[in-house]
Amino acid sequence: MNNEQQDLLNEAYENYVKAQPYTPIAGNSVGLLGEYKNPILSQKEFINKIKTDPEFSEKWGLKIEERELSLEERCDEYILKDISNMKKILYVILHGSMNPSRYFNIKETWGKDVDCLFYSDHEEIEKNIIKVSDRKDYHSCELKHVNVIQYVSNNIKDYEWLFFCDDDTFVNTKKLENLLDTFDKNSVHGSVIHSWPEDFSLGYCSGGAGYLIHSKLLEKISKNIRLLNTGYSDVTLGLCLREQNIPVFDYELFRCGPPSFYGYQDDVIKNHITFHYIITKDNMVNLENNL
Question: Which one, of 235, 246, 168, lies nearest residue 213 by Cα?
Fold first, then answer.
């Protein structure tokens, strides 16, 4: 709290005390001795009430920035942003210069009518591809993912939700977007697996199946996520979420394999949100045609 805020709080507390009903002791003409009709809050109690009771705060003339609330408290009690003006979702897609056709596989099928950001080992601004690492090897995905989470959190503020996936992931965008309001904003949603041989107790969301994160939660994650040298982006995210006690939610509509892996017929494809290992454009088109 700065000096100006402290002065405003002190003044508000003095005004609060002066406004309380007070009965002077008989014979004391100046009224310096007496008793209050109601119990008086201490200054600490007054400040705590200011923090948690907006009506009380407004009564004593304090604006939001003078209340010394945490950002989380302010977001809970006040609308700092008109989220109706925010775009609903951004699709953040792992890509690589070694597989340029996968960009077109997405942009000419499920990604053609939605906002996409591709992150890669190269940059093509006109295609909305950003460079987050020089490395091209598979295990560089961990570093790329850490970097893109921090990039998105620091630079992209106009989306309520972020969906992270690979460039061989198929996304049923309409189904996902129709369900957005049903997802818990304080959890990460995806296909939870226990496949890391170093610690099978770790439940983490499969990167290939994709995972959904609310923008406010991503801000929290970005402050803690870092390179752990696991070699796997989804494992590293899972470890960082566990450190922060952020829950992961296993949602059966996110699938970390293609429909054939589950024995799905074409008529059930539309009931799911994602499938993974969809390598060719023909396979992407086939899935899109079955929605």
Answer: 246
Say yes or no: 73 and 139 in one domain: no
- The domain in which residue 172 lies consists of 83-289
**Residue where the block lists tokens 């951004």:** 90
For residue 32, what pLDDT is reported?
41
Same domain, residue pair 268 and 169: yes
214-217: list long-range contacts, CB under 8 Å, 24+ apart.
214/160, 214/161, 214/162, 214/183, 214/185, 214/186, 215/157, 215/159, 215/160, 215/161, 215/162, 216/75, 216/185, 217/185, 217/186, 217/187, 217/188, 217/246
Query: Which of 54, 77, 100 is a domain's end point?
Result: 77
- Summarised one tens digit per residue, pLDDT across range 197-238 is 999 999 999 999 999 999 999 999 999 999 999 999 999 999
pLDDT at site 68: 47
Q: How many domains does the chain contain in total? A: 2
Burial grade of 197 (CB within 10 A; 0-12, 13-18, 19 or more)? exposed
CATH of residue 227: 3.90.550.50
Beta bridge partners of 164: 92, 211
Instruction: Pick the last residue of a domain from 48, 77, 106.
Output: 77
Q: Provide the whole-model pTM.
A: 0.71
Which of 210, 200, 191 lies closest to 262 in space, CA to CA? 191
Q: Does residue 267 carry a pLDDT above 80?
A: yes
- Residue 148's pLDDT is 95
Whether residues 59 and 88 share a domain: the answer is: no
